[in-house]
Amino acid sequence: MSDLEDFVEKNRGLTKKIQLIIPGYRGYRIKEDLRDTDSLLRTYISKTQISPVLRLLEDSRAKLVQSLELSTIQDVADLIARVKTVDSKISHAEQGYSGISPTYRIGSKELYALYEFDLDLIDNLGTIRANAESVYQKISTNQYKEAKNVIEEMARCLDSFESLLEVRKLGFIKTMARGHTEGEE
């Protein structure tokens, strides 16, 4: 069990603890806790993984402005926009409603899969962060040609990362469609 799951469990109020005892309501409560855990994880990813990348890129852009290196400013600005888009996609990602009588049924297995997928995103963000650090270092030492090469590599990493997010979204849609079909039977 992860630290976030422990946190959610330990911070259940009296009402939530009672819900775990009521037959038929227990599964709902467990699924809601999984959704809360996944939401906390995505907030964590945004604040600890993506925010530092944005700061590095914004600092890089500021250094480019100071040195009047205009040919690279737009490239860094494009990266900033893409990272902000990725941040928004993660922050507002689908999480699956697990109500007592939902139209679409999302089971614990599917919710755990979403959570595990989101946990794996952290590993993939490591390369993007390393690229942002390298861009900043290259720009700080006036190595603009080398910075452009790293910017291109970072753009490719963002392409891959956005593809992962699309896989998550499509997987979620398929799960919802399957759950809707099962719910009608």
Short description:
With 185 residues, the chain is mainly alpha-helical.
Protein structure class: mainly alpha
Number of domains: 1
How large is the count of helical segments?
Answer: 6
So what's the overall shape?
elongated
Largest sheet: none
Mean pLDDT: 76
Q: How many individual β-strands?
A: 0
Fraction in beta strands: under 5%
N-C termini distance: 34 Å
Oligomer: single chain
Amount of helix: over 70%
Rg is 21 Å
List the helices and strands in order.
HHHHHH
Poorly predicted runs are 97-104, 179-185
Describe this structure in words.
It is a single chain. The chain has 185 residues and is mainly alpha-helical. The protein has one domain. It has six helices and no strands. Helix 1 crosses helix 3, helix 2 packs across helix 3 and helix 3 packs antiparallel against helix 4. It is elongated and about 65 Å long. The chain starts with a helix and ends with a helix.
Q: What topology emerges from the helices and strands here?
A:
Layout: H1 3-10, H2 14-21, H3 26-66, H4 70-91, H5 108-140, H6 144-184
Helix pairs in contact: 1-3, 2-3, 3-4, 3-5, 4-6, 5-6
Keywords:
mainly alpha; disordered C terminus
